[in-house]
Structure to design on (256 residues):
C-alpha cells in the first residue's frame, strides 16, 4: 500500500459517520441521497439491517437512523436492534423513523434512550432539522400533530420557513452572531425546541402566557426569524456554525 492510499484510508476512518438502517432499497436510497446533500460533513452509510454495524467498531459513528416502519417500540425485533446498536456503536445517538406518530410510541422510544423520534408523516425539512438537533447533542420528539393542533398557542411548522432557515444568507447569520439571548429567553427557546405550545411553556416555567409570547417575539427578532420554528432552526444553525469554526469536538454554549 502506497503512502497516498494509506493517508486516504486513515483520513476516512476519522470522518464522522451517520448510518441509515432501512430494509427496503427504494426508501433507503431516497433517504441516503437527501442526507448526503444536507449533511455534507458526515459520511452517510446505508444498511439493510443492524448486523452491518458489527464491522463499524473502528469508525466514528455519531448517529444511527433506524427505520422500524409499523412495528411498535416494544416489538422484540426492535428491542433486539436497539440492543445491537448500543453494543456495537455505544457512542452513537439513535433516531427512529416510524410510521406511528402517537404519544405512547414517542414516549416508549424516549424511555429506551432514543434521542430522535421521527414519524414518517413529517416533512423532510423537519426530519433534517430533527437529525441536526440530535447530532449536536439535543433530543427531538415532536408532539402528535392532532394533539398539537388542539393546544392553544400552537404555531404549526411552516415547511417553507424551515427551508429558508437552512438557506439563510451570511448577513442573517452575522445578525444572529451579534445577538444574545437572556437566560429566560434561553429557557423559552429550549421549550420551543421540544415543540411545546405557549400554554405548556408558561406552566412549565411558571410564567404568564403573555410573558411567554413576549419572550418568543424577542427570540424571533434576535434570530431574524419569521416564526418560532424558523427561530429554533436559525439558532441551531448559528450553534453549528460556531462549532465548526471554533472547536469541532465541543458543542458551543448559547450566549448570555
Amino acid at each position: 500500500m502506497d503512502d497516498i492510499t494509506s493517508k486516504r484510508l486513515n483520513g476516512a476512518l476519522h470522518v464522522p459517520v451517520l448510518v441509515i438502517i432501512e430494509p427496503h432499497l427504494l426508501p433507503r436510497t431516497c433517504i441516503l441521497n437527501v442526507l448526503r446533500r444536507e449533511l455534507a460533513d458526515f459520511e452517510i452509510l446505508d444498511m439493510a439491517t443492524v448486523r452491518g454495524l458489527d464491522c463499524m467498531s473502528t469508525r466514528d459513528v455519531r448517529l444511527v437512523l433506524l427505520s422500524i416502519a409499523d412495528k411498535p417500540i416494544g416489538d422484540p425485533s426492535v428491542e433486539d436492534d436497539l440492543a445491537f446498536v448500543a453494543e456495537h456503536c455505544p457512542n452513537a445517538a439513535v433516531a427512529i423513523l416510524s410510521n406511528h406518530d402517537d404519544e405512547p410510541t414517542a414516549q416508549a422510544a424516549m424511555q429506551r434512550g432514543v434521542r430522535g423520534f421521527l414519524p414518517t408523516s413529517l416533512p423532510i425539512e423537519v426530519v433534517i432539522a430533527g437529525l441536526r438537533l440530535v447530532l449536536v447533542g439535543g433530543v427531538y420528539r415532536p408532539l402528535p400533530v392532532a394533539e398539537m393542533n388542539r393546544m392553544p398557542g400552537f404555531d404549526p411548522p411552516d415547511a417553507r420557513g424551515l427551508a429558508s432557515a437552512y438557506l439563510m444568507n451570511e448577513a442573517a447569520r452575522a445578525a444572529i452572531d451579534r445577538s444574545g439571548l437572556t437566560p429566560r429567553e434561553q429557557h423559552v427557546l429550549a421549550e420551543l425546541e421540544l415543540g411545546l405550545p405557549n400554554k405548556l411553556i408558561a406552566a412549565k416555567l411558571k410564567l404568564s402566557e403573555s410573558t411567554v409570547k413576549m419572550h418568543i417575539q424577542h427570540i424571533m427578532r434576535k434570530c431574524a426569524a419569521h416564526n418560532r420554528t424558523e427561530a429554533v432552526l436559525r439558532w441551531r444553525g448559528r450553534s453549528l456554525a460556531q462549532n465548526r469554526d471554533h472547536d469541532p469536538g465541543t458543542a458551543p454554549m448559547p450566549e448570555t
About this structure: Confidence is low (pLDDT under 50) at residues 3-11, 145-178, 250-256. The domain at 143-256 is CATH 1.10.10.10 (Arc Repressor Mutant, subunit A). The chain has twelve helices and five strands.
